[in-house]
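Work Package 3 (structural annotation) set out to generate three-dimensional models for the target panel prioritized at the project kickoff. During this period the team completed the workflow that converts sequence records into discrete structure tokens, so that structures can be stored uniformly alongside our sequence database. As a representative example, we reproduce one entry of 407 residues exactly as it appears in the project archive.
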Amino acid sequence: MISDSDDPLAAPLDLLPLGDRHALAIISSGGALSAVPVVRDGALRRAGPGDGVSEALLELIVGTAGRTSTGRFGVVSWATGRVPKGERAVGVDQTNESVIVGDTAVVKWATHLERGPHPAPGRLTSLTASGFTAMPTPWGIITWAPDDGPETLVATVTGFLPAAVDGWTWAVELFQVAARTGDHTAVTRTCASLGEVIADLHAALAATVTIATETDARRWRDNAFATFDTARRLADPDLADRLTRHADVIATTLQRLATLAGVPILDVHGDLHVGQILRSTNALLVNDFDGNPILPAAERILPAPAAVDLAGIIQSLAHVAIVAARRGELSPDRLQPVDLAARTALYDAYLSRLTENGQAAVHAEAALTALRLQQVLREIIYAARHLPRWMYVPDSALPALLDEMSR
């Protein structure tokens, strides 16, 4: 049983010592768990950049070979060499607090700790073992196992990419330039490269391939229909009406997921969209292997069709076009050919590279449209619950996808 105290640092749930004064603390506040850096100055206090806790964590990572454990903490290291010095903040997102160490490494502290099991340790271990390099270089990870559940991720260390930007910046800019000039060369070249990266990702995870069961297929179908029901309940009246008017075709499409028993499944990224694709010095890198935050923790680690990732990235390109039109004050008609060229280039390059890698069998074409539709429904839920100003994206994406489905 986890109990809160008035001062969570006065009674941490667990501590991973990082030298004499520094530690990683697991604390509970308001019923939520956090993994935070702490320093002992008499009593424990919350550490910040400059206190040396992130440097101390790197000392542990670099000084560890392979996987070790200390109490309920696990340490996995792929790093060697000298520990960089100097700390500065990156910022805070929804799940992490990041600190740059020596302009060489980034330490992400899971200040909003998710219950396990967590997919990132297994995914990163598999990808590193297979030699996959189109991701920020993994240095190491720290896990923690509570008394009442499986281990989860509490800290991640990766190589620092000083010039990296995510796809909601670089892709939107590419689409806008292509729409204004009519030249789609840069868009198609970049999206083809992205398709190859995703094919290489799936080839690198091919050692995890199994075969979907009837139970798997029913779960995917049931989850999709639950998503549909939730989206219809949370949508604004006009969008809810559109969902209702097209309920039959939506249901027919989602029902296809029940037919996927027997298809190859594997450890996929699980939450792949352009925001997870970093562009750094013209390289495209896959980031964030935390899995889909909408799914329960136990389901995030389950294998799924490779089409989950392909559908996610393809549909997100359609969303890029919508965002590019809005931000660039361009008509949707000017973005439509760019969107089509981008999605076609990615899809063709993905299938071609997957075939070259000898893994064409992992592609489940029959699942693609249903999974794209499910992604739009999830965007409705996300916008309604977390970011209302985002609702214009699924509001535009849904009729476009329904029209595409009817052709």
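Residues 165-406 form a domain with the Aminoglycoside 3'-phosphotransferase; Chain: A, domain 2 fold (CATH 3.90.1200.10).
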